[in-house]
User: Which sequence fits this backbone?
């Protein structure tokens, strides 16, 4: 395997599904499934600093967050912006308030469009609980969609639209930690909304803004890579990284049977 390929953060683009499976398996490592443990393991094998991990493939890894992003954000002042069509002003939720809204940790599986999947312990708050905390009657918005927008980088903003009704039914979460560690830059620091019933590209990293909208727009990855706008998980075999084997995922929604 050409490990130098892994370390090129400016033009990192995996085209071979075989290589993806091999590298994704390798990044798991013997210490656990967190990116921090995997980073240490892969670095020890390569003998070089590891700039990124393969947890979102078919991406340029530095697009959704510039180098040093976590140092440039003052989390005491940071807040996610929520735009509701029936509110005269935007809603701001600080990181401190967000983390105090009934936080939970759950073991749930994400599925990548590039034929691999992993189960990890996610810490965050249910989207429904966030709306309840804000006094938003989400029942009247069930016909709406939820548009996510990232912080934006020198290469532009990233956006994705998902069904609000389905996200609530699927117990979507606002995530800030994985396997007990804060989200790393490549995982979406400081927060990421995840609907576990959809392919992972539908969940924007470095989440900055949420919009209630009656439009279902094509997002960044649908435009760039031609991915399905709805993001439904396709029924087919996937490399299950945490189990070190290939298993069939039936595409009926969130994967809960293994």
Assistant:
């Amino acid at each position: 395997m050409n490990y130098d390929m892994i370390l090129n953060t400016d033009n990192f683009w995996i085209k071979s599904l075989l290589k993806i499976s091999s590298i994704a398996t390798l990044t798991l490592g013997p210490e656990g499934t967190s990116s921090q443990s995997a980073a240490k393991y892969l670095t020890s094998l390569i003998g070089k600093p590891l700039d990124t991990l393969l947890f979102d493939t078919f991406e340029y890894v530095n697009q959704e967050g510039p180098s040093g992003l976590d140092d440039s954000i003052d989390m005491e002042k940071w807040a996610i912006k929520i735009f509701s069509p029936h509110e005269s002003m935007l809603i701001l939720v600080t990181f401190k308030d967000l983390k105090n809204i009934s936080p939970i940790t759950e073991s749930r599986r994400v599925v990548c469009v590039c034929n691999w999947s992993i189960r990890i312990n996610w810490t965050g708050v249910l989207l429904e609980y966030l709306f309840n905390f804000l006094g938003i009657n989400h029942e009247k918005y069930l016909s709406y969609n939820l548009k996510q927008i990232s912080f934006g980088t020198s290469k532009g903003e990233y956006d994705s639209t998902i069904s609000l009704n389905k996200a609530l039914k699927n117990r979507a979460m606002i995530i800030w930690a994985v396997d007990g560690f804060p989200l790393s830059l490549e995982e979406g620091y400081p927060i990421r909304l995840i609907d576990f019933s959809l392919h992972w590209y539908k969940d924007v990293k470095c989440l900055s803004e949420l919009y209630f909208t009656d439009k279902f727009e094509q997002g960044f990855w649908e435009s760039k890579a031609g991915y399905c706008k709805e993001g439904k998980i396709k029924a087919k075999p996937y490399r299950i990284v945490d189990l070190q084997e290939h298993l069939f995922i039936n595409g009926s929604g969130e994967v809960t049977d293994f």
About this structure: Residues 1-35, 48-69 have pLDDT under 50 and may be disordered. The longest helix spans residues 17-28.
